[in-house]
Amino acid sequence: MVRQLLGEPDLLRSNPHLRAAPQTRLYSMDRVVAAEQSEEFRAASAVAARRSAAARAAALRRRREVLARIAAEPIEVPRLPPDRLAALAVEHHNRRDEERASWRRGRTAQPAAVAGAEPGALDRWKVDYLSHRLTRPAEILDELYGRTGRAAAEELLRRRVHAAIARTYPDLAAECERRLRAKGKFGCGRGPGLG
């Protein structure tokens, strides 16, 4: 609208923030005020407002569609015997610890064992393992990359996964609740990383 209503600038100055950037266009206040009082400005503003409202409505519709898809996605947490879940959780923890050690200079993996793990740590590892095992939700989030509503979809999915884990394993409900209060983000790598 500036170019349409004001045309060429009254003055060009060097960009004060970055010398290599295009020059800053400056306009006389009298010209700006006159342009803002014109019928052409009112018409252009009305068109811009309609476009903006239509874009907001479309974004809201896409967000609702994304959330409906996440809400409808079945989340099935595998039921495992306690010993088996603990062993798989420690194995998963050790594998991820090795991966992290390989990414960071000076860090060495410190393998854990079920017998030596603190109860709180073991619960965290169990929830990590279970949430990472649910790969279908992660695939859905991958499909939503860059789309409107992805952040809300992540949060909804995170809540649903932790609720499903807590229903399947009531002894992990406190850890799931702690994670929901912490409002962590999905992790990187394979699986939703709902930790």
How would you sum up this structure, described in words?
- The chain contains eight helices and two strands.
- A two-stranded antiparallel sheet has the order 1-2.
- About 20% of the residues are buried.
- With about 200 residues, the protein is mostly helical.
- The chain folds into two domains: about 1-65, no CATH class; about 65-180, no CATH class.
- The longest helix has about 35 residues, at about 40-70.
Task: Provide a quick synopsis of the model.
With 195 residues, this protein is mainly alpha-helical. The chain is built from eight helices and two strands, in the order αββααααααα. Helix content is 63%, strand content 3%.
**Secondary structure category:** mainly alpha
Described by strand count, sense and barrel closure, the largest sheet is: 2 strands, antiparallel
General shape: elongated
Mean pLDDT reading? 86
